[in-house]
Amino acid sequence: MLEEAQPVLNIPSLRNQVTPQEWKARVDLAACYRLTAHYGMSDMIANHISCRVPGEEGAFLINAYGLMYEEITASSLIKIDVKGNVLLKPDFGGLEYGINRAGYVIHGAIHERRHDLDCVIHTHTWPGMAVSSLECGLLPMNQTAMRFLKIAYHDYEGVVLDVAMQDKLVADLGDSNAMILRNHGLLTVGHSIAEAFNAMHRLELSCKAQLAAMACNVPLVQVRREVLEETWNNYQPKTRRPYGVMEWPALLRMLDRLDPSYRS
């Protein structure tokens, strides 16, 4: 007879084992996982969100392979370096969760080569996978999608398990904050967790809107190129405040109302 599973994992707190700066990053990253689940962008235990550890060169936080996004907490995150070595692992009891290699290869590639970025989000949502499989890619067919007018693309070369794929991945990302992984899914990056989440939320909405419009099987309204360029420019960091800053405290308040356990 199978032993009844625990409804909630009791993971000992790591708060006293890390710096205050790392603990804040852990809380924000755990919140990002919960928000990704809340907005329907998770894929059971698959995919990853990572963030750089403040003040610790080459170290970043990532999810344990085996946890649902909705149960991730600040203390359940694993700290690894850009080579995939585990630096700090929570006590999972008999579960002995580790990291997923594909997550390390993708996220480690960016954290090792792009020191200006703090957060990387990768998803396998059905709208993202659908648009990633379209030859046309993401169309700038509405104001939200125009923000991604110059989105990056990375061709599919198999499951990302080989570190030899890392250079091409980062080269294709370039200076963009969002990339469509062809026949795979979506990826966003940011100078903060809030910024990366904002980009992913808007990119997901853009994919959903495109699929809905294309399903109507009628001609799409075209926008003049100069208007597309102007709109894209209005969304760039040099012309507006950083994304995510204003809504992040409100999003945390929402999570605190729903389930504040992400902070533990």
Automatic annotation (TrEMBL):
Residues 27-211 form the Class II aldolase/adducin N-terminal domain. It comes from the Bacteria. Coiled coil: none annotated. It comes from Sabulicella glaciei. NCBIfam families: PRK07044.1. This is Class II aldolase/adducin family protein. Belongs to the aldolase class II family. Pfam families: Aldolase_II.
